[in-house]
Specification:
With 348 residues, this protein is an alpha/beta fold. It has twelve helices and 15 strands. A six-stranded antiparallel sheet has the order 14-13-10-11-12-15. It has a five-stranded parallel sheet with strand order 3-2-1-4-5, with helices on both faces.
């Protein structure tokens, strides 16, 4: 039987949740819905997208088209949705609007709406790879040597790994093996890049939950066995003391963040883990950690409503294998010419 809380008068019985830029994250949204039911809460799962051509848009309880992220009308549109639909929690699902939401978190709070977000400074530390590298070095975690593009060009080496200074979903990242490949990559993606040593070895994601008290209450390391378009396709939960210590240290030193943190690292055989990515949001494969017993959506909802936090560090099932597969949503459209990719297909 699902556990139901003995609600006090000060605790809400209803929680409507807004997901921004949800795209294909249907499983994550479904996981939030399951938690609402387990806690005996009423609530709508609402999605805001720039267009209707996403699976989440059609599978949410309610969905709204909003202006593009980065435009002056984006945040006001979200605030209107929150005001008119009594939204109590906002969950950003991708990187692209994290900074905007962080800067405007106070405007949402005025509507009694909580955003799972960090401070502007903390979000920038995660989003800007130069700042991320300095942060990781400062807390003593294994660091991959990171150079600006001019520094690299002064003394190039191959193979190397290149990534945008501020990137998302692995767009613009690549393993570069020679000068010709570097020139082609820069011509396609521009020169706002960082270059790193290429560190071979096993790759892991750490799903971290940092509570409002600043402590890490959950870390689930999961090995990325196969990756497609920047997201894990085959993954395995692992119980590993070094990786869990890395997650606790990173999460507790990342001041100003509340909620889920997604960090990625690579570990050469016999060596220590090198963190190369920090995202203050749910990762694409977070549903594996949820299935393994680390109920990240529940933790967010509990702290949003002031309920006791049920997270326990180390409480998850190891060696749980996830094999993701594609499903489809079929929708009749009135005007196909307005679909993204109609003139030129989108490549991811």
């Amino acid at each position: 039987m699902p556990r139901r809380w003995a609600w006090g008068r000060s605790i809400a019985r209803k929680l409507n949740i807004l997901f921004t830029c949800a795209g294909r994250r249907v499983s994550l949204i479904t996981a939030f819905g399951k938690v609402l039911r387990e806690l005996g809460l009423e609530g709508k799962l609402v999605v805001a997208e720039a267009n209707a051509a996403t699976p989440a848009f059609h599978l949410a309880d309610k969905a709204f088209i909003v202006p593009a992220v980065g435009t002056v009308s984006y945040i006001p549109a979200l605030l209107d949705i929150c005001r008119q639909n009594e939204i109590g929690l906002v969950i950003p699902v991708t990187d692209i609007d994290l900074r905007s939401l962080s800067r405007q978190a106070g405007s949402f709070a005025e509507l009694n709406c909580t955003v799972m977000i960090g401070s502007p400074s903390a979000v920038l530390t995660c989003r800007d790879k130069t700042r991320s590298a300095a942060f990781l070095e400062g807390i003593g975690l294994g660091l991959i040597r990171t150079l600006s593009l001019p520094e690299f060009l002064a003394k190039p080496f191959y193979p190397c790994f290149i990534k945008p200074i501020r990137g998302s979903a692995s767009v613009g990242t690549a393993l570069i093996r020679n000068e010709s490949a570097l020139k082609s990559h820069l011509a396609l993606h521009g020169e706002l890049m960082l270059v790193q040593d290429y560190v071979p070895g096993a790759e892991y994601t750490l799903d971290i939950y940092r509570g409002r008290d600043g402590k890490v209450h959950s870390v689930v390391p999961r090995q990325r066995l196969a990756v497609r378009s920047g997201e894990v396709e085959k993954g395995l939960t692992v119980r590993d003391d070094e990786l869990m210590h890395t997650g606790v240290l990173l999460g507790e030193k990342l001041d100003g963040i509340w909620g889920v943190i997604n960090a990625q690292c690579r570990r050469p055989a016999g060596g220590k883990a090198h963190v190369f990515e920090i995202n203050p949001r749910f990762g694409g494969g977070a549903t594996l950690s949820i299935a393994a017993g680390a109920n990240l959506p529940r933790y967010v909802i509990e702290e949003t409503l002031g309920l006791p936090l049920s997270a326990k560090l180390g409480e998850f099932t190891p060696n749980l294998l996830m094999l993701r597969y594609d499903e489809a949503v079929y929708v009749n459209v009135d005007d196909p010419t307005k679909l993204p990719g109609y003139d030129t297909p989108q490549m991811r």
